[in-house]
Design brief:
Elements: H1 2-14, E1 25-35, E2 38-50, E3 53-62, H2 66-69, E4 72-83, E5 86-98, E6 101-110, E7 113-120, E8 129-130, E9 149-150, E10 160-165, E11 170-178, H3 182-185, E12 192-202, E13 204-205, H4 209-216, E14 220-226, E15 232-242, E16 245-257
Length: 258
């Protein structure tokens, strides 16, 4: 569960479209998730920005060979604004179905701090669990909002730590400058790549090998592309190393409509 939560948090972050300045502007994005060259999921996201506020809605569903093992689909939404170069969410909701299992998570924020968490059905008590501590939910973003990086230039995109919380799992994702790969350069000028290191904070089981791998051995790369003159960089390509191979998230399209 913790590995799935970590990958879900990263996947949502990777697929969040961008922002506009004062005028109303919308963005639509289509993404594919693949493993060993095979498509295993598809997602679509649409965001709207007006007067410094944003709202994002999206869907994700298993595809290809993944549907043979377990059909998964979800719908998520987030809203909020910005404080300087920080994304500051107001609300987040995700409805998730995996086979016959259904889960709803809803978060509410105030000034960047989580003030309300709802999980349906409620989370079960687990052994050897790292509990949430006081302060863990201060200054955090949901996985969807965290994917919108506001920066004054490409050299300011990396060099920051994103604090993510998905309703159970709390982790830090630190972005380090890295060279652009050939796949990243295909998205045009202005693309910037960050190497990402993750650190579980709380809400996970101690000694989980998959999380240890993500923290200590996984190679995670995310390429961000600028969205016109908005000052926001959106993920367009990413690779995440796991114990069973590399997962790739790729943008098929990212359209702007004013």
């Amino acid at each position: 569960m913790a590995r799935r939560a970590a990958l879900s948090a990263l996947a949502l972050m990777l697929a969040a479209p961008g922002v506009a300045r004062a005028e109303v502007e919308t963005f639509k994005g289509e993404y594919t998730v693949s493993y060993l060259g095979l498509t295993i999921a598809r997602s679509t996201f649409e965001s709207r920005f007006e007067n410094g506020k944003f709202s994002v809605e999206g869907t994700v569903a298993s595809a290809g060979i993944a549907e043979i093992f377990d059909r998964t689909k979800g719908r998520s939404s987030a809203s909020g604004g910005f404080a300087g170069d920080r994304t500051q969410p107001d609300a987040f909701r995700m409805d998730y179905t995996e086979g016959k299992r259904k889960q709803m998570t809803a978060l509410k924020f105030r000034d960047g701090d989580v003030v309300s968490t709802e999980n349906v059905p409620p989370l079960k008590k687990r052994k050897h669990w790292v509990p949430l501590k006081p302060g863990d939910l201060d200054g955090v973003s949901d996985p969807l909002s965290a994917g919108m990086i506001k920066a004054s230039g490409p050299d300011k995109v990396c060099g920051r730590t994103l604090k993510l919380f998905d309703g159970e799992f709390r982790m830090n994702a630190t972005l380090h400058p890295a060279p652009n790969s050939e796949a990243a350069r295909a998205y045009g000028d202005g693309v910037v790549t960050c190497r990402v290191t993750v650190k579980p904070v709380s809400g996970y089981r101690k000694g989980r090998k998959s999380l240890d791998y993500l923290e200590k051995q996984s190679r995670i790369m995310i390429a961000f592309a600028p969205l016109g003159s908005t000052g926001v960089y959106a993920p367009v390509h990413a690779t995440v190393g796991t114990q069973i191979g590399t997962v790739t998230v790729r943008s098929k399209s990212l359209d702007t409509n004013k």
